[in-house]
Amino acid sequence: MSIFEFVLVMASLILAIGITVLLRHVALIITNRRTIELDFVAISWMVFLFIIATSMWWSFWDYSNVNWTYPLYMYLLMCPTLQFLAISMLVSTDTSKPGASLSATFKRVRLPFMILMAAFQVIVSWDGWVFGVEPFWNGLRAIQCTVILIFVIGALTSKQIVQKILVTAILSIEIIGTFLLRYLPGAYGAS
Fold it and tell me: What pTM, to 2 d.p., does this model score?
């Protein structure tokens, strides 16, 4: 086992547990769909969280040649940990019970969710630089800073229409970025 494989185990476990929590609650929401008030914004954030979890694991290959130290290992664990916390807030046990309101749950957790996701995005935006596989500034930083701004705006406003626009924008950015730029593992590490 290489050091990279060893380091990746814990990060992969945290990501897998987060995806498990997310998918379990989606299944419960589907099961109870007739009695749960569905919400475009909350469901879109769930889709986003699933895509970034799988994209994050896929992107770990960029770090296969990093000279790992404990501080770098802890830095690596911050992203899946923040994402797990965000998932756990968004799909709390309330969201899957009959009579639940996804909209009410999202409104209750919006501020801490957005703060966690902004912190997540800051860390993930510069992880390649921290691990020594990317320059501090590259062509994607403007887009990554836009995503950070989206989370900040999401934290500052509770208006439903603004939340719909923000989640649509960020989901579009993530889908395009994942499926066009991250088609092969190591897409950034090789450049």
Answer: 0.88
Q: At what angle do helices 141-156 and 160-176 cross, to 10 degrees?
A: 160
Kindly give, in sequence order, each residue whose CB lies less than 8 Å from that of residue 101, ignoring residues fewer than 6 positions away.
36, 37, 39
Read off the pLDDT of residues 127-147 as tens digits, 9 standing for 90 and up.
Answer: 989 999 888 988 788 889 999
Query: What is the distance of C-alpha 149 from the center of its chain?
Result: 15
Both tokens of 125, joined, read: 């935006």
SS (H, E, C) the chain: CCHHHHHHHHHHHHHHHHHHHHHHHHHHHHHCCCCCECCHHHHHHHHHHHHHHHHHHHHHHHHCCCCCCHHHHHHHHHHHHHHHHHHHHHCCHHHHCCCCEHHHHHHHHHHHHHHHHHHHHHHHHCHHHHCCCCCCCCCCHHHHHHHHHHHHHHHHCCCHHHHHHHHHHHHHHHHHHHHHHCCCCCCCCCC
149/172 Cα distance (integer angstroms): 15
